[in-house]
Structure formats: C-alpha cells, structure tokens
Amino acid sequence: PIVIGRCFTYTTLVNPSIRYDCEDIWRHFEEAVVHQSSCNVTEEHYYEMFNAMPQIWPCDRFLFWSKTRTLMHSFAAVFRHFWTLEDTLVGYMFNDLIWCGQEEDSDFDFNSCPEWSTCGTHPVFSLWKQASQNFAEMACGNITVLLNGSIANAFSRKSMFGSVELDGLNPQRVNYVNIKVMTNLTLRILQCIQDLTQPDCRHMET
C-alpha cells in the first residue's frame, strides 16, 4: 500500500536517523480502521499506531499553520530549518489521503468514504486530530504560526490549529510564539524567491 511505501521512503531517505517498523505501524493502522464504520473511529483507536512511531525534534523549529497550506509549503521551502506536521512520519505517510473502513468487510474503502469533515469521529479527522495534538505537545522553544491575512478571519477557533494545536502547546516548553499574518502578495514573493522565471516575477529581476 502507498502508506507503507511512504513509511519506507521516510525512514530510508527523508529522515533515516530513527528506525521504525513500517509493517508494525501498518498493522496498528489496520486494526484502528478496518471493521469500523466510516464515522466510528476516535483518536483512541490510533493510540497503538502512534506509540509505534515516537518522534522528537529540536526546539525552535516548529511551524504551525492555519488556512495557509500553499503558503506554508512555499515558506518552508525557502526557510528550510522549519519543521511542520507534514514533515513528521505520520504527516508524511498520510498527507492528502482519504480512507475509511467497512463494518461488514475486512478491507479499506477508498472510493465511497464520506468527507472527513462530516463527523467528529471520521477516521481521517481523528488521525489528524491526534497527530496535531502530539505535534503541539512536542513543540518547544520559539515557535512560528502562519495565518492567512487574505481572508476575513485569519484565526478561527474551529480550525485544527485553533481547536487542537493551540490548546496543546505547553507553556512550560514554549518560550515565544511568532505569529506571521501573511497575504497573497507574500506568497508571490516567496514563490519568486524559489523561481524568478515565473511570469509574475520578471519585474523583480535585477
């Protein structure tokens, strides 16, 4: 499966400093989701899987984001010392995937799963909620938060950052929170730093 493939890629190429048992992680993932209905998987179902993939990261490198997905990727590409949830093993393995189980079957359903925002115990929502909680609890030192200044509400308590990660930060571990409210213009500038040949960037060339 693609999840195991990503796990092997991560442990051999992306971050080979720590060894993980990808087959064991996959087995715990199966146990959490298979045989469960599409809206009956809680964070607790994933506890064994997360226990099989512990991870720590140096302080002062944690980057959180909310409604700034594209901007976050450009920002992280330019300022490479930052570390996001997508850079963790669980983030790398499950990024952009949708999955659910079937009560009457012993396999995954990848074709007819409901939107992961339709219920609070959707297997995708529960995994990201637990992953976000773990990431926030691990954060230490000076952390950075990217918010979208091009929308009406840059900060929302309903977002994963506002509802999970913010409350998960440990004030005894986090010294300073650097909040960056960025606009679409900032995004274009960051993209141009990466590639000045883009049409919108030609006027920036010297």
TrEMBL record:
<dbReference type="InterPro" id="IPR003193">
    <property type="entry name" value="ADP-ribosyl_cyclase"/>
</dbReference>
<dbReference type="GO" id="GO:0005886">
    <property type="term" value="C:plasma membrane"/>
</dbReference>
<protein>
    <recommendedName>
        <fullName>ADP-ribosyl cyclase/cyclic ADP-ribose hydrolase</fullName>
        <ecNumber>3.2.2.6</ecNumber>
    </recommendedName>
</protein>
<keyword id="KW-0808">Transferase</keyword>
<dbReference type="Pfam" id="PF02267">
    <property type="entry name" value="Rib_hydrolayse"/>
</dbReference>
<dbReference type="GO" id="GO:0016740">
    <property type="term" value="F:transferase activity"/>
</dbReference>
<keyword id="KW-1015">Disulfide bond</keyword>
<comment type="similarity">
    <text>Belongs to the ADP-ribosyl cyclase family.</text>
</comment>
<keyword id="KW-0520">NAD</keyword>
<keyword id="KW-0378">Hydrolase</keyword>
<dbReference type="GO" id="GO:0016849">
    <property type="term" value="F:phosphorus-oxygen lyase activity"/>
</dbReference>
<dbReference type="GO" id="GO:0030890">
    <property type="term" value="P:positive regulation of B cell proliferation"/>
</dbReference>
<dbReference type="GO" id="GO:0061809">
    <property type="term" value="F:NAD+ nucleosidase activity, cyclic ADP-ribose generating"/>
</dbReference>
